[in-house]
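Researcher: Here's the sequence for the chain we discussed earlier.
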Amino acid sequence: MTGAILITGAGTGFGKEVALRLAATGHRVIAGVEIAAQIAAVRTEARERGAELRVEKLDVTDPGDREHAWTWDVNVLLNNAGISEGGSTVDIPADRLRRQFEVNVFGPILLTQGFAKKMAARNSGRIVFMSSVAGLTVDPFTGAYAGSKHAVEAFADALDQELAEFGVTVATINPGPFLTGFNDTMFEAWKTWRDDPSQRLFDYSELAFPHEQHDPEPVFATTVAVLLGEDTRYRHVLPAPLEPQIRRQVEAQWERPLNDGHRPALVQKAHDLTPATPARH
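Model: Thanks. This is the structure I predict for it:
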């Protein structure tokens, strides 16, 4: 592999840790961060871990940033940049709904277009999408985020079929509930809405992310293996023990009846659970 591994959204969370791990083991990595203020912090952390890491500003929603990124020599692309907008579908303001899709769908796909054509021209490359179990199933109050990840799943599947003859592989990473702060922040998005709180259907100060959350180590390890081509599966539901449950949820949609007018269990759990509740092992 001659080109670098480009990871978007590498200023925080999954993206940053994966970039640092790969760089620390000698791989050529470009860490794309959303804002210039993140560059120095990531570079400092890389030095502290003895890693040689190239850090570049790359806001996937910025056409200029995307065009500049296409000049880099990249053979593996991890579309990791993403945000999460929590709230009921009937309450989320229009600007926040559009922003959810700009960051999670339109920006990454437009960035991918340029790299995919270069990969196809040299008959080599790998494109990986940091999707989510929310791209396969949906929880209450995550409709916007899940909608964006369902769209990512569709684009990834199409790309996998379209690029096969050009020597380019595609894969998805589908994390479940991991304790990184991402999920809990999603349920605080309402605090910055510019709307009339009295018109909201729900009181979001009473709601929390409705799942116990896991240690993120499996996501780091699996993503590294996928990027390096050591894991050749197309889809990766994490943690792995969650996969049978997700399969059952997807299959159950075929026989799902209309709701019975009662509050579903996950809606109640959003009322009952404390934020950042760790999963029991």
